[in-house]
Specification:
heterodimer; A: mainly alpha; two-stranded antiparallel sheet; 2 strands; globular; B: alpha+beta; Ribosomal Protein L22, Chain A; four-stranded antiparallel β-sheet; 8 helices; 13 strands; disordered N terminus; transferase (chain B); 4-PPantetheinyl_Trfase_dom (chain B); EC 2.7.8.7 (chain B)
Chain lengths: ~180, ~325
């Protein structure tokens, strides 16, 4: 599965030209998301349509956002683009970044976010989760920031708060502030 | 599937739809352009959508990029909301083009601060109306405000919304001193709660109208309050009897930012709604009431439109 926020990879089929964008006709699949997100499709009210998803059993295919086998480009560390087969991959990210936050911090942030947004326990929330895609509006975001301040005993400035878009961003910022506070 | 013809309702030819599952939707009834002091508001209630085939129709209207954004949302409910929001914007704008532009044909861009706006194509024999829009949503309603060539911001919040944090803590952190002082005067916690939410929607609407984002217009830097009636404002105009909503910079109290006018009201008995619109200085009112005019429609695009302006769906209006 590709990382959110990046443009879709040009998918390759073994013998066919690349697909530019997910075919519209794959809509019935599109409403049921990847298995690792365990989303329910719009069930019950959807009647069978005459649309067939464009899948063949012969070539490796892209199944839209279902997270199944996909063929994708990725830039290897030596800088040469290469094609790799990935099964439900977590795309390797290249970040010029500082150290990432500890898993426990990420976990705590997830809990606070889930509580604020009243998400069910089985809703998958991880470091990659964006607040906007979890359904947080601006009031939720400020409440989450205040919840984090209280839980970690820190104070978050407005400018820093604006730069937080994912759970990971929040966790990284928290650890930075906690460290600055104790040093 | 029998669709009853109701007043103001778009007749739906169910037979033709059943035969062609992905038929192009019926044309939207055209709407007259907003006048210079008007905001048009179109809102949709997601729970009213019971027919899943409509979702496919709406999906057809979106750009590939928008479709991907919809599918990125976490869960079916949020996806449906995101889809409806895009469908609402596209169908609403299309109504004002006299049938010349389809909802699907609109393109959008962001201004340099990230505020979404229409990217108009150039046409040889027709100038598209310079529409500006803004949307807001909650899980139970999505609203789109449209003006003719005037910056607009709209924000809606459920009346019943409860905050996790204490109201005064939130206010101390994010509101201006004048606003905090006002909230402190309210002893009843429920009253304080609802006033907080209403003030929040007003501040959000203002920030969205300015289009500079939350960080470009920090909540703490401006005050929104009621100005007493019959006071002369900076422009020298006499206001009508009712108190009006005004905005001023915290650093410059007493200098009202007259460029902006507001409306605060309740929509569908469920939501506080705030609208902020730039005042039209090209067409100043000659002595009469200069306040913001509203026209409101409840819609389920391609199914039903209902004008609710003079009904109970729009009440307790403060301008």
């Amino acid at each position: 599965m590709r990382k959110r926020g990046t443009p879709p990879n040009r998918a390759l089929r073994a013998r066919r030209p690349p697909e530019i964008s997910p075919p519209v006709r794959s809509l019935p699949l599109a409403f049921s998301l990847s298995s690792d997100r365990s989303m329910a499709s719009i069930s019950g009210t959807v009647t069978a349509t005459s649309v067939r998803p464009r899948l063949t059993s012969r070539a490796p295919v892209v199944k839209g956002f279902s997270g199944l086998k996909s063929v994708s480009f990725s830039i290897q560390r030596n800088g040469f683009p290469s094609v790799r087969l990935q099964a439900a991959p977590r795309q390797r990210r290249f970040q010029v970044s500082c150290a990432q936050a500890k898993p426990e911090t990420v976990q705590k942030v997830c809990e606070i976010v889930k509580k604020q947004l009243a998400l069910s326990d089985d809703t998958p929330v991880s470091g990659e989760s964006k607040f906007s895609t979890l359904g947080a509006d601006s009031l939720d975001t400020v409440e989450i920031v205040m919840g984090l301040e209280e839980a970690f005993g820190i104070s978050v400035e407005e400018e820093s708060a604006q730069s937080i878009t994912t759970v990971q961003d929040a966790a990284d910022l928290i650890e930075k502030l906690v460290e600055a506070k104790s040093s | 599937m029998s669709w009853l013809l109701r007043r103001n309702m778009l007749p739906l030819h169910s037979n033709s739809l059943a035969r062609r599952p992905f038929a192009s939707p019926l044309p939207l009834p055209p709407a007259s352009l907003p006048s210079p002091r008007e905001t048009h508001i179109w809102y949709v209630v997601p729970d009213e959508l019971k027919d899943a085939s409509l979702l496919y129709q709406y999906m057809e209207l979106l750009s590939p990029c928008e479709r991907q954004s919809v599918l990125r949302m976490n869960g079916e409910r949020l996806q449906k909301g995101a889809l409806l929001a895009r469908a609402l914007v596209r169908t609403t704008l299309a109504r004002y083009t006299d049938g010349r532009l389809s909802p699907k044909s609109f393109k959008f861009q962001k201004n340099r601060f990230g505020k979404p706006e229409v990217e108009w194509d150039k046409y040889d024999l027709w100038a598209p109306p310079p529409l500006q829009f803004n949307i807001s949503h909650t899980s139970t309603m999505i609203a789109c405000g449209v003006t003719l060539d005037l910056p607009i911001g709209i924000d809606i919040e459920e009346k019943q919304r409860k905050t996790s944090n204490n109201i005064l803590s939130l206010a101390h952190r994010y509101f201006s001193p004048v606003e905090v002082a006002y909230l402190k005067t309210l002893a009843d916690p429920e009253c304080r709660q609802s006033e907080f939410i209403r003030l929040w929607t007003l501040k959000e609407a203002y920030v969205k109208a300015l289009g500079r984002g939350f960080s470009g217009t920090p909540f703490k830097d401006f005050t929104i309050r009621l100005e007493a009636s019959n006071s002369k404002q900076v422009t020298g105009e006499l206001k009508s009897d009712a108190p009006s909503i005004v905005v001023e910079a915290v650093d410059d109290p007493g200098i009202l930012m007259n460029r902006w006018q507001f409306a605060l009201f309740e929509l569908n008995n469920s939501h506080y709604t705030a609208v902020c619109m730039e005042r039209d200085v090209k067409n100043p009112a000659d002595g009469e009431n200069n306040s913001l005019k509203l026209e409101v429609w409840r819609t389920l695009p391609f199914v039903e439109d209902e004008c609710v302006t003079e009904t109970d769906a729009v009440k307790n209006i403060i301008r």
